[in-house]
Structure formats: structure tokens, C-alpha cells
Design goal:
Layout: H1 10-34, H2 40-69
Helix pairs in contact: 1-2
């Protein structure tokens, strides 16, 4: 479960999101490989979580890249 957002740094929160995504990927992969306990609803839930977490992580990484480039939109200035 994710740590309280009010008591954590941005770096720690990012690490929590990456860890949560990895846990969901592993659980879905295990469900697919083992097959005997496959549940469509549970697989869909894992898939949606993975997608949302990936979107959040990608957004954080885009903001970091933009900050490193010195612009708010990630584009190089003139």
C-alpha cells in the first residue's frame, strides 16, 4: 500500500509508485503464467493499475526532464 502522501518526499513517492507498479506487474504475470487461478476481473484490475501508475510515473519523469532542460514544457529555449 502506498505511504501517506502528506508524510513523504517526492523522491520517496516516486519510488513507491514504481514499486507498486512492479508489484502489480509481477502479480499479473504470475496469474497469467500459472493460469489455474486466472480471474478476468482481477486481471483487468491489475492492468488498469499498471496503466495508471505508468501514466503517473511518465508524467513525473517528463516534468523532471523539463526541469533539467530548463523549461516548463521540456522544449529547449531560443
Amino acid at each position: 500500500m502506498l505511504t501517506s502522501i502528506y508524510k513523504t518526499s517526492a523522491t520517496h513517492l516516486y519510488q513507491e509508485l514504481v514499486g507498486e507498479r512492479q508489484d502489480n506487474v509481477e502479480a499479473l504475470t504470475k496469474m497469467i503464467i500459472e493460469g489455474e487461478h486466472f480471474n478476468d476481473d482481477e486481471a483487468l484490475t491489475y492492468s488498469v493499475r499498471i496503466r495508471l501508475l505508468t501514466e503517473y510515473i511518465d508524467e513525473i519523469e517528463a516534468v523532471e526532464k523539463a526541469a533539467d532542460a530548463g523549461t516548463s514544457d521540456g522544449l529547449k529555449g531560443d
